[in-house]
Structures are given as C-alpha cells and as structure tokens.
Amino acid sequence: MTIVASNDGDELNILAEDGSVLGVVVARDHAGVAAVLDSGLLLEFSLYGTTLTLTRAATGQLSFI
To answer: Superkingdom, according to UniProt (predicted)?
Structure first.
C-alpha cells in the first residue's frame, strides 16, 4: 500500500500495489495525516472497508534514553 498526494494536492490517495485507489483522505483530515507521515516514525497501515488506521510500528523505532 502507498499513500500519495492527489494531482491537485487536496487529497491523499491510498493506492494498492497495482496502482488502483483503495481510499482517499479528504482535505479536512489531510493536515493531521500529513503531519503523522512527515514525523519520521515507522508506521503500519491497515485498511478495513473505508477506515484507514495508522499505528506506530512495534519494531524498528529509534530509542532515546
């Protein structure tokens, strides 16, 4: 799964490996999602129906002590 900005930049498209659109993050939710994607955290994505869930990956994160 890949998340990319739409051609006009108003939405984020969730794409399958074959390039087909699985879902869309609308503009009102875009800023929050973009901030999470830009955070540098390793994320896991799951798509159930029309709900995209982003969670912090359980492994591979940097640790600061």
So the answer is: Bacteria
